[in-house]
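Changelog note: in this version the structure field was regenerated for every chain. One regenerated record is shown below for reference.
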Amino acid sequence: MKSYKGTPYNINNTIIGKVTHKNNFFLKRKNYVILCNEKCSHLYGYSGAIFISPPALNIPKKIPYIYYNDNRMLSDLKDDDVVLLNPDGSINVLWETESNDNVFFLTNQCNCKCIQCPQPPHEDPQGLFELNLKILNLIDPQKTNNLCITGGEPTILGDRFIGFLKKCADTFPESNITILTNGTQFSNFEFTKQVCSIKAKNLLICISLYADTYILHDRITRLKGSFYNTVKGIQNIAKFYKNIEIRFVISKLN
């Protein structure tokens, strides 16, 4: 994730919006963050602004903006990138419209505690799931070829995960949708049925497997029964003829 750090003004809460380099019609500004120089005017209606040169003195006091003194941002940020402006002056790029490697990181939580995992499960920051919904509502279906849902383990969100996947499929019917999962939740046939009944034209479910025996697989995941549930999950998905990718994770341990 790209991030920058500037000087904040009038930002009391986080602001999320799509980047624009040009002035939009007033009624279409509310979902946009304008990237501009000191000559920018008519800032009312935007979610926020990013200045890459010292702003003029006559900026209305209520306009939230961040001053980041580097012209390279003009080329770094593209129209329709989704950014988050924070009260501390940091700018996080949540979605790059020209990239095929964007992900929806739904949760930090996971039902496994894999030995080699670079991101051990922990509590989610407040509003993480809602933030992903906002990103989903902002991005343009005409410019989005790939959607990837990951975590943590996204499927442990249950109905929220299913609702999110359905919204992806309904809003982006032609896009490739990839789910990265350990597969254990799919051992529940009713859950699998709900997921597979969603009309996602280009769905790929990627499932990690660490061994061909339960002893070694469960030792790595540190979850008793995970091998059995993962294999059963693969079998359940296959009953609905959905595309499955088995990801063999090779390490010193196996």
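Spot check on this record: Helices lie at 73-76, 128-138, 159-171, 189-196, 214-221, 226-239. The first strand starts at residue 3 and ends at 5.
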